[in-house]
Amino acid sequence: MGSAPSILLRDDASLRVFDTGQGRLPVIFQHGLGGDAAQVAQNFPDRPSYRRLTVECRAQGDSGAGTKRPFSIAMFADDVLAAADAAGVDRFVAGGISMGAAIALQLAARYPDRVTGLILVRPAWAFDAAPQNMRPYAEVAELIRSRPLDEARDAFAASATAARFRKEAPDNLASLLGFFARDNAAVFAEVMQAIANDGPGVTRAAAAGLAIPTLVIGSGVDLVHPLATARSLADAIPNAAFVKVTPKATDKDRHFAEIRAAIAGFLDTNFNN
């Protein structure tokens, strides 16, 4: 993933920050809920001409949780902006996957003088907090916080939610089951519960006022990141480009390759001329 990460001391948390590439315009690109910089590297084009900054959010990757509560998308966005300031990055393209897309959307709405472009990959939120598609995360979090981990995992695996995901979105199910095996499962359950009930804090009207180049990427066979959510965002943001990619559940390699190609094309077209 390039150079070794630096550490950002933010409140009482130690956050890992990856700063790679040498591009003219930096791209701040964030992982999804429970993800890390390795997840970002799978989705972001690996070219020295693109400078990418990624913060591993609190209690995710190798970043510490700290003691500040509650966790929120706004908290994570503040951490990202602090990392940009520490790196001397003033203006940037904001992007991310799932939760990272929500962080990017909030940054674009809050800091229009700093965000020059927007990349939303497999967004899980449009404008409302606590969408139904995030309910499985809250369900997993509640089980982890109320039962021993083995018992909690067995209960979820036998649930109606798991049965539906097993049939309709097996890749999502694998991710959800993986949360029970995390070393920091108890703390991460707090993160899951808080973020699943949160939202990007951006209204449809605010999105309609975003006058920056925007790319929205969606795919099917995904109950956590509905294709309709991606289309809704693309419709709301003026002149946003929408790209539908192969579902991860169908062909992972092709899925990631298509995302990287779409992002590279977007950046080359809008920022590298």
Compact summary:
The protein has 273 residues and is α/β, with parallel strands linked by helices. It contains 11 helices and 8 strands.
Description:
- This protein has 273 residues and is α/β, with parallel strands linked by helices.
- Helices cover 44% and strands 16% of the residues.
- The chain has helices spanning 37-43, 73-86, 99-110, 135-146, 149-157, 160-168, 170-178, 185-196, 204-208, 227-236, 252-271; strands spanning 6-10, 13-20, 27-30, 52-55, 92-97, 115-121, 214-219, 241-245.
- The chain has an eight-stranded mixed sheet, with helices on both faces.
- The longest helix is centred in the C-terminal third of the chain and has 20 residues, at 252-271.
- It is globular, with a radius of gyration of 18 Å.
- The mean pLDDT is 96.
Give the topology, please.
Blueprint: E1 6-10, E2 13-20, E3 27-30, H1 37-43, E4 52-55, H2 73-86, E5 92-97, H3 99-110, E6 115-121, H4 135-146, H5 149-157, H6 160-168, H7 170-178, H8 185-196, H9 204-208, E7 214-219, H10 227-236, E8 241-245, H11 252-271
